[in-house]
Design brief:
By secondary structure, the protein is an alpha/beta fold. The chain contains nine helices and eight strands. Helix content is 39%, strand content 16%. Helix 1 packs across helix 2.
């Protein structure tokens, strides 16, 4: 199964790139796939990868390399690692040393912890605020009023840089529901850009996954997170 998936990765990337606008960043979600799959995508020009489990994230970064101190001496020195899953505060040391950005800051508690880690380590951590837009109550994330409160008080967060919003649409086959979710976060993103023009880094809107990324780009996605449509079924 793994060897079959490797053969298809370059073809899948080509198929996506033919449709994806050049200004939209492709985050290849490599969770549950081995280093061999990442290296195959890397050989075909992919540089941005997303992981959602801290231990797997750290192991891959430490073995492959990337845009972090020490990563330049490893096989893939220009990899950009995005952390896209729920992050527990006791796992920060597995993620923050290697992440180009944490897309999934989903609570004030986590934000405070990331901010404290960045300040203590002389770093400014790029983050996206995860906004709860889907119908599932189990999803993490902030509501609009909570995001507004955070940004009105952004000056107290010296260890992070607010770079935009991330969201996941409802898990449904109802395209109208998916569009409504993406429209909601897109309109709110536009509102925030107008309200806080001083936050020049607040430009990123990460929405869209393997099943709905083509819809997401119609609503202003600046990056899409695609896993299965690149790598195939999970390898482990």
């Amino acid at each position: 199964m793994i060897s079959e998936n490797l053969v298809m990765i370059s073809e899948n990337l080509d198929s996506i790139r033919r449709v994806l606008p050049p200004e939209v960043k492709l985050v290849a979600v490599s969770k549950f796939h081995p280093n061999e799959a990442i290296l195959e995508a890397y050989a075909h020009g992919q540089r941005v990868f997303g992981e959602n489990r801290p231990q797997e994230f750290a192991a891959k970064a430490q073995s492959l390399g990337g845009l972090f101190p020490g990563g330049e001496s490893l096989p893939c020195p220009d990899l950009e690692w995005h952390f896209i899953g729920h992050l527990q505060t006791n796992k920060l040391k597995m993620v923050l040393p290697y992440a180009s950005i944490v897309e999934s800051v989903d609570s004030a508690h986590l934000l405070d912890a990331v901010n404290a880690w960045g300040s203590a380590n002389g770093r400014v951590i790029d983050i996206l605020l995860e906004m709860h837009i889907g119908a599932e109550e189990t999803k993490q994330g902030f509501h609009e009023e909570e995001i507004l409160e955070l940004l009105f008080n952004a000056e107290k967060y010296r260890g992070v840089r607010f770079c935009g919003l991330m969201g996941m649409a409802s898990h449904t086959d109802d395209e109208d529901a998916i569009r409504a979710d993406f429209q909601r976060i897109s309109l709110f993103m536009d509102y925030l850009r107008d309200l806080f023009p001083e936050y020049s880094a607040f430009t990123q809107l990460s929405i869209g996954m393997s099943g709905d990324w083509k819809i997401a780009i119609q609503y202003g996605a600046t990056s899409v997170r695609i896993g299965t449509a690149i790598f195939g079924p999970r390898a482990y």
